[in-house]
Write a structure and sequence with these properties.
By secondary structure, the chain is of the alpha+beta class. It has one domain. The chain is built from seven helices and twelve strands. A six-stranded mixed sheet has the order 2-1-6-5-4-9, with no helix packed on it.
Length: about 280
């Protein structure tokens, strides 16, 4: 081995001396070869792949993504930024990936709910240009709200943080208090339904037509659907849910069953009332 190395040095020395235009340092070529070898990656080493989440077709529409996120454990872990900031009563902690437990959100229910202040805000549901969305749980008995913060990063939706805290003043507080009593106290409910109640449904004689009619109080109790009594979900696409608003819309969407109902509330003379009910379930 020493003879081979000495021979290599001798050849480099002769080559350097034979060419006046090249450097006079006989070791320059050898040094360059060694430095070059150090800078080159191991030929057996595979190139490092970009592990950042890649957008999928479901990322275009947030509703498609959130159901995939809630039902697919592998996708959920990939689309959650760890360690995940978790705020409980404004006390921050961070959840490491190894301690994360799959969160089904509302995917194991037969429905989920949405809250709006105005009818035109309901068009935000299909907006493909959204970059920030919050998914919320509103707990009626404890008056707590749990909010999941999603951001679209390089085209891929990611969960960035979770916040669990008391419902604050000016944050649907008055309506939540009203609704919690409305769905659990039948006497109170009867006093907060406008009569006649506007009713919109599918025409039983023509499923492609909408029928607009009214219900009296007895008809409401005969046909009223089951309303959530323990908690409400909400997906905030950017709509304003303000306590000062005099109108509230509660939309109940079935999950995979064609169920769809909408409840329209308004504040009249300082009191909330249900004034319109829509059932277009298929």
């Amino acid at each position: 081995m020493k003879k081979v190395f000495s021979g290599l040095l001798l050849l480099l020395f002769i080559a350097a001396c034979g060419n006046k235009q090249k450097t006079s340092d006989p070791f320059a070529a050898l040094t360059q070869m060694v430095d070059s070898a150090r800078q080159q990656p191991d030929s057996l080493q595979q190139p490092v792949e970009d592990e950042s989440p890649k957008p999928i077709e479901a990322d275009e529409l947030f509703d498609d993504f959130i159901f995939n996120y809630a039902s697919d454990d592998a996708l959920q872990r990939q689309r959650t930024i760890f360690p995940l900031p978790y705020y409980k009563d404004d006390t921050p902690v961070k959840i490491e990936k190894k301690y994360w437990e799959h969160d089904y959100l509302f995917s194991q229910q037969s429905y989920y709910t949405l809250l709006f202040d105005r009818e035109e805000d309901m068009d935000m549901v299909g907006d493909t240009a959204l970059t920030s969305v919050q998914v919320e749980w509103v707990y009626l008995k404890t008056r707590m709200v749990k909010k999941y913060y999603f951001e679209r990063i390089k085209g891929a939706w990611m969960l960035e943080a979770i916040n669990l805290r008391k419902i604050e003043k000016g944050e649907n507080e008055a309506f939540v208090d009203f609704y919690a009593r409305f769905v659990t106290d039948s006497v109170y409910q009867s006093k907060h339904i406008h009569t006649p109640l506007k009713f919109i449904t599918i025409d039983p004689d023509d499923e492609f037509s909408i029928l607009e009619t009214t219900l009296d109080l007895n008809q409401w109790y005969a046909f009223r659907p089951i309303l959530p009594t323990d908690r409400l979900s909400n997906i905030n696409y950017g709509q304003k849910n303000e306590d000062q608003s005099t109108t509230k819309i509660l939309k109940v969407n079935g999950i995979g069953n064609g169920y769809s109902t909408v409840f329209y509330f308004r504040k009249k003379r300082g009191e909330w009332e249900l004034y319109k009910y829509e059932d277009t379930s298929m």
